[in-house]
UniProtKB/TrEMBL annotation:
It comes from Streptomyces pakalii. Keywords: Membrane, Transmembrane, Transmembrane helix. The chain crosses the membrane at residues 57-77, 89-110, 122-144, 156-176, 196-218. InterPro entries: Pr6Pr-like. This is Pr6Pr family membrane protein.
Length: 248
């Protein structure tokens, strides 16, 4: 009997079976993402160290910044190794968290008399880092270093799981604490003692609809923005010298 034809074909080399998924290092992307990670870590660190808004770890801003720090730390490592960027469903979720953090503070919370005034020194530095610097670096990364037309409306339910989980955390924590506990509900519009569960959930639903609209706007902008990352990559390829062995 003759051997099957497949047995007569040359066996593929290991390099052909498992291609190297890494590419050239991206130092500028690494630098920007390291800066974003550092800003996202510094804000919560200063807040915890100074006790500016006790108890700080229950605030959405602090938790969101910690998530952003993890995402951008991971992204910076991948950029330095030449690995592919984070998938769009994570990139969009990180951007939405940053946008919520900035817009809720600058457009909503500053109008509440219960919101503490940062003053000067470390409290002011923490406020700027948490609500302004980190969201701006996240936005710059999205606009300059990610490819457009990758976000999808189907990603939005996944992005909204973080605010939904936070709402559940706040309501569960508030129910377990005794009435009169300071900062039992960290935000005025989530205060069950004032609005009851019906009023609180109604306001949370309104915020959820606003966050959905914001996520839809981000997705729409992603599909019309220019491909700055592709232009930067094209320029770098044009001015980079040919690799060794490229000319024979």
């Amino acid at each position: 009997m003759t051997e099957p034809r497949t047995a007569l074909l040359p066996r593929p080399r290991a390099a052909e079976v498992l291609r190297d998924a890494t590419g050239p290092r991206r130092p500028w992307a690494t630098a920007l993402r390291t800066l974003a990670c550092g800003a996202a870590v510094a804000g919560p660190a200063i807040t915890v160290a100074t006790g500016y808004t006790p108890p700080p770890l229950i605030h959405f801003t602090v938790l969101a910044n910690l998530l952003l720090a993890v995402a951008f730390g991971w992204s910076a490592v991948r950029s330095w190794r030449g690995a592919p960027p984070l998938p769009p469903y994570l990139t969009g979720g990180v951007l939405l968290l940053a946008a919520i953090t900035a817009l809720m503070h600058h457009l909503v919370l500053v109008n509440y008399t219960e919101t503490p005034v940062p003053g000067t020194g470390w409290p002011l530095a923490a406020t700027l880092l948490l609500h302004t610097v980190t969201p701006l670096t996240v936005t710059a990364d999205w606009l300059l270093l990610t490819a457009p037309r990758t976000l999808r409306l189907a990603h939005i339910p996944l992005w909204l799981t973080a605010p939904a989980a936070y709402l559940g955390l706040v309501l569960t924590r508030g129910a377990l604490l005794s009435p009169g506990t300071p900062d039992r509900y960290p935000y005025p519009f989530l205060d069950v003692d004032t609005y009851g569960y019906t009023g609180t959930l109604t306001q949370a639903l309104a915020l959820g609809l606003l966050f959905t609209a914001l996520a839809s706007l981000i997705t729409a902008v992603d599909h019309i923005r220019p491909n700055v990352a592709g232009w930067i990559q094209h320029r770098r390829n044009r001015i980079s010298p040919p690799a060794a062995g490229g000319l024979k």
